[in-house]
Amino acid sequence: MAARTRAADMIGTSLQGLRIVLVEPSHPGNIGAAARAMKVMGLRHLVLINPRFFPDPEATALASGAEDILDTARVCADLDTALQGCHKVYGTSARDRRIQWPSSNAREAAGEILADLGNGDCALLFGRERTGLTNAELDRCQVLVHIPTAEEYHSLNLGQAVQVLVYELHIAARTTPPQPAAPP
After folding, report:
1. What Cα–Cα distance (Å) separates residue 124 from each residue in 4, 67, 109, 150?
2. Cα angle vertex 13, ends 89, 129, to 5°?
3. Which of 69, 132, 162, 166 is deepest in the core (most CB within 10 A)?
4. pLDDT single digits (tens) 8-61
5. Is 98 helix (H, G, I), strand (E, B) or coil?
6. What is the pTM of this model?
7. CB–CB of 117/156 below 8 Å?
8. 2-175 falls under which CATH superfamily?
């Protein structure tokens, strides 16, 4: 049990500077599901931009043991405030876009995010349930992240998308040896 706790602490430490940012979530259950997914995978920093309903009993119910993530969630009025202090932003999208910035699948992005966290805080941005991120919001991102899906249907529920990406981050953190801190 002690070895498992030490491993969880190391994973949590390696992901400490990562913010999970939900842009204008409209369903409180997705906020709760995201919080639960985060806690189970060792992430702590949830940022909500203009949530339609928060706090909300449905968010609390779906958090199921991750109420502390909801209690410490930061609510912001705009993207600039949510991303303040982040040196790199990863944006998620299910749609193919003609973009001029790098694109990674969830597994590749997890390794990249882990490496980038060594240089400072990062954000992983999730869009609205119905429409995703706008092009203007994606322009704030340096990397576009997608979750490979079947060809006939690409759209995941917001809570599910968060779960997939934080799982990949958790696995990457478990399999990447801890890096020594850079000298000052």
Report:
1. 26, 21, 10, 23
2. 40
3. 162
4. 454 556 899 999 999 999 999 999 999 999 999 999 999 999 999 999 999 999
5. coil
6. 0.89
7. no
8. SPOUT methyltransferase, trefoil knot domain (3.40.1280.10)
Partnered with residue 22 across adjacent β-strands are 48, 126
Residues 6+ apart with CB under 8 A from 50: 23, 24, 76, 77, 78
| Structure confidence by residue, pLDDT tens digits, 93-137 | 887 666 677 899 999 999 999 999 999 999 999 999 999 999 999
What are the structure tokens assigned to 95, written together? 């749609």
Query: Residue 182 carries which DSSP code?
Result: P
The strands making up 45-49's β-sheet, listed across from edge to edge, are: 74-76, 45-49, 18-23, 122-126, 88-92, 143-146, 103-105
Identify any residues that bridge with 146 across adjacent strands, giving them in sequence order.
105
DSSP state of 130: T
Residue 145 in 3-state DSSP? strand
Q: For residue 131, how many other CB atoms are within 10 A of its CB?
A: 10
Alpha-carbon span 66 to 62, nearest angstrom: 9
For 184, residues 6+ apart whose C-beta sits below 8 A from its C-beta are none
